[in-house]
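Late entry, evening session. Most of the bench is empty. Finally got around to the prediction I had been postponing all week. Sequence below, unchanged from the version circulated by S.P.
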Amino acid sequence: MTSEEKARLAATAAQELKANEVVVLDVQGQTQLADFFVICSGTSDVHIRAIADKIIEKLRENGIEKPRREGVQAARWVLLDYEDVVVHIFSAEEREYYNLESFWSGARVLELTEEARGQHEPAIA
């Protein structure tokens, strides 16, 4: 599976749990941290953890091992590190504060369907 396919799969998994504003950034050539960042938001700590679990499950089903994880306990900014793909799952407040999309504004944004971007009513968790 390519890095882009892995990022798209993570984005789809996030959307399945109604993550808000799902974005995939192609940061290849801009950092050695990863090739792609998947960024999304959850509505509560429970929702954020559930999104993380869904992404881990979906990628594991496709043969991708568990990532390194940070922030799961506090669930304000959960980071899933798959080496070539890093998933950031934020609370709305943390996402606005850290504003990664602005920081990586030179990155190409992968086109996702409206559904995959999470353009829907906020989930209740």
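Two things to note before I forget:
The CA atoms of residues 67 and 82 lie 5 Å apart.
The longest strand covers residues 20-26.
Will write this up properly tomorrow.
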